[in-house]
């Protein structure tokens, strides 16, 4: 389990260093505006945007990231990986 935690957090750290943040952990607007497709007996309502954002925030917290999806120094240190540093140029 710990190796899996390191893998996920390291992937997020690499993504952070490449300019990715919470705005990239989103869904297209249509997911919140249009019903999903299925067969005639299955109704898939649009997702609730606030519930989605709340779930995303909870995921970040569980994974050791800040509210922008960036791994925290504490979580990185605990898992023995190098913390990311966003490009300051």
Features:
89 residues; mainly alpha; elongated
Q: Report on the biggest sheet.
A: none
Overall pLDDT metric: 91
Structural class: mainly alpha
Spans of 5+ residues with little confidence (pLDDT < 50)? none
Order of helices and strands: HHHH
Shape: elongated
Distance N terminus to C terminus? 36 Å
What is the tally of helical segments? 4
Approximately how much beta-strand content do the residues carry?
Answer: under 5%
What is the fold's blueprint, element by element?
Layout: H1 2-17, H2 30-33, H3 49-63, H4 73-79
Q: What does this entry look like structurally?
A:
The chain has helices at residues 2-17, 30-33, 49-63, 73-79. It has 89 residues and is mostly helical. The radius of gyration is 16 Å and the shape is elongated. The termini are far apart. The mean pLDDT is 91.
